[in-house]
Amino acid sequence: MDLNKLLNISTLAGKIMLESGAETYRVEETIVRIGLSFGVDDAESFVTPTGIITSLTKDSTTVTLVRRITSRGVDLNKIDLINNLSRQVQAQSMTIDELNTELINISQSDRYSAALTLFSSCAAAGCFALMFGGNIKDFFAAFIIGACIKIVSTVCQKLDINSFFINSLGGGLCAILAIILMKLNICANLDKTIIGSIMLLVPGLTITNAIRDTIAGDLLSGITKAAEAFLVAISIAVGTGAILSLFLNTIQS
């Protein structure tokens, strides 16, 4: 058995999961499970939100690999597929090459279509506006703003723009569009519309994973994710607050 090949493949599985928003403990479990399934004497994995360290030992030979994680998103389908794949490897025979092929197919698999993602974002923003006490006008206003935020965020991500700037831009765009729609009498409650639309930018999964990792004892990962969520919240507040302050000063003058 090629120990280095197994090391790279098991780390690839963890890399895909971590980039898709998986918890650190789940990534570590998956890497260790794959390694032990192929008969290594010992498998260890240390995962943080920005990196993976994997070590495999077989017949007194130890190999170690460090993999840097530079991008993170949310794709629960990939997490589920790899989680199930690792359990299949544990339960039945599968060659390393077959596992590698499956992982490559999963990593290259298409996410939901752009149109469906856009519509879902719009609907989510509108429904949040209703949930926070808005009316039907606020729903449609948040629906429109949600579309704009999603389009701008997607374009900025493709251009590799800093996430702090993207969230600040999204917050500012949300505020200024809500003000414009209110002037056009499309929006009834400015606060409800802004809050509903901003929910698209709130890092809900990151906050949840931060709490989960901290409770599980993964303090480094928990603190890192909590800090990331805090910075995202600040960036949203900066963008939204700047536009609202400018708007309020203009009205008062």
UniProtKB/TrEMBL annotation:
UniProt domain Threonine/serine exporter-like N-terminal: residue ranges: 10-246
Subcellular localization(s) per the UniProt record: Cell membrane
Chief place where the protein resides: membrane
Highest taxon in the source lineage: Bacteria
Keyword presence, Transmembrane helix: yes
Keywords annotated in UniProt: Cell membrane, Membrane, Transmembrane, Transmembrane helix
GO MF annotation list: transmembrane transporter activity
Record field: transmembrane: 112-132, 161-181, 193-211, 231-251
InterPro entries found in the cross-reference section: ThrE-like_N, ThrE_Dicarb/AminoAcid_Exp
Record's protein name: Membrane spanning protein
Pfam families named among the record's database cross-references: ThrE (PF06738)
Membrane association type: Multi-pass membrane protein
GO BP terms in the entry: succinate transport
Membership in a protein family: Belongs to the ThrE exporter (TC 2.A.79) family.
GO cellular component: plasma membrane
